[in-house]
Amino acid sequence: MSKKEMSRANIMLTGSLPKIITKMAVPSIISFIITTVYNLADTFFVSSLGESATAAVSVNASLDQLIMMAGSMLAVGAASYTSRLLGAGDKKKADQVLSTAFFLAMIFGSVIMVLGLSFKVPMVRLLGATDTCERYSIQYAEYVLLVAPLMAANFVMNQCLRSEGNAMLSMVGMGIGGILNCILDPIFIFQLGLGVAGASMATAISKVVSFVILLYPYIMRKSILHLSIRKFKMAKNIMIQIVSVGSSSMFRSGLAVVSAIVLNNIAGTISDSVLAGIGVSTKIMMFPLSVILGFGTGFQPVAGYNWGARRYDRVLKSYRFSSKVAVIGSAVMGLLIWIFAKDLIIIFAGSNREMIRVGMLCIRLQSLTMPIHGWVAVVNMLCAGLGKAKGAFLLSTSRQGTCFLPIAYPMSWLWGADGIAAVQAVADAITLFLAVPLMHRLRREIITLEKDAREAEKSKQSVFT
């Protein structure tokens, strides 16, 4: 074991848990926020081209989710498994897991690229494009599809850097790409007169830059994990571990696509204003959700590493700390967003009253349920970190799947645009009924394992004495 690996093991197994989780989480939070900023940058600059152009960017958010689905299963599954393998001291296998996930992500992303470019019109119509925004939707989709393989691979490198404790490198890779996108947007959209296509070009270039930066530490051996085509190994035990845990993320991304398509299609039947209002409010809410996800991403490898090292006491302590921070932090963010909801939506809606009304309602209702989402996200990350595939799958698919899809059409039928705006908040509240009994069982399991480990240690000491 190298000095770098020994130092990391010592920190993970003996260091202050609040300090470790915070150190891991802050770069993750920053990188997620920057990603959200450049997603919003597209919407902000394109909004000056009219509500149909704004609606087109909202529609294509589902395309990003579709590409994410190609890489997220491999990324989350590989990150969970590599953190546990590193905790158990098996670096060789961890390298194989990373390499296998990376090259498979490139392949899956390539499939989406080819299919998307071959069937552009049916694709954007399926995603929810209306007659008035179809042309803009196609323009935005073209360049994003060209970099789909790199986007999918970015997820794997990003997550695995975090799993080995290199959250700062992950942040730099995602952050620089995001900042570049914000700089290029106004240049391409206005100065070069490329409109919606310019926003797509800026996004594509930023993804390429992020790919190069994230790849650098692996190629130059600046990371603990090493990436190589020679280590690509689709062994049964590796694929089972990746798929069993990662499938929850894949289904979460897939259901996010489905729920967005359903919402877009329902909203589009009312007006482009409602469609744009829902889309913009969803992107605004990505700010607090990015903080929650970033914090959970910082917590997950800490829990997984200690679980692999059989330090069950630290697993439980890390969960308790993360739960408190998530609930309190989410409540504070929810209050602030509630207060400034109208000001935030006006930035994108201008004087469009219906867009302002629907967007503000959507934002404020989700602000009320944000503490629930914060805690459920921690439980979800705990399940993923410990390799509890069933629990991770249940919670990953609930927010925009099992708790969302059954209520979407009834709520829109009963309350129209207001019902559409309220769907996500109601779904968040329902997820609580799934997470509470799941966490109760998992907590009992961890306490039992901790007790057994403590007794085994006492028995070992009595033998030597």
Structure description:
It is a single chain. By secondary structure, the protein is mainly alpha-helical. 88% of the residues lie in helices and 0% in strands. The chain contains 19 helices and no strands. It has helices at 3-14, 17-46, 51-87, 91-118, 120-127, 134-146, 148-163, 167-191, 195-219, 236-270, 272-284, 286-308, 312-339, 341-349, 353-368, 370-385, 389-396, 398-402, 405-464. Helix 10 packs parallel to helix 17 (389-396). The longest helix is centred in the C-terminal third of the chain and has 60 residues, at 405-464. It is globular, with a radius of gyration of 22 Å.
Q: Summarize this, please?
A:
The chain is an all-alpha fold and 465 residues long. It contains 19 helices and no strands.
* Inertia-based shape: globular
The low-confidence parts are: none
Question: What is the helical fraction, as a range of percent?
Answer: over 70%
Tell me the β content: under 5%
How many helices? The count is 19
Number of β-strand runs:
0
The overall pLDDT average reads 86
Distance between the termini: 30 Å
**What is the N-to-C order of secondary-structure elements (H for helix, E for strand)?**
HHHHHHHHHHHHHHHHHHH
Major sheet size, sense and barrel closure:
none
- Give the helix/strand class: mainly alpha
Evaluate the radius of gyration: 22 Å
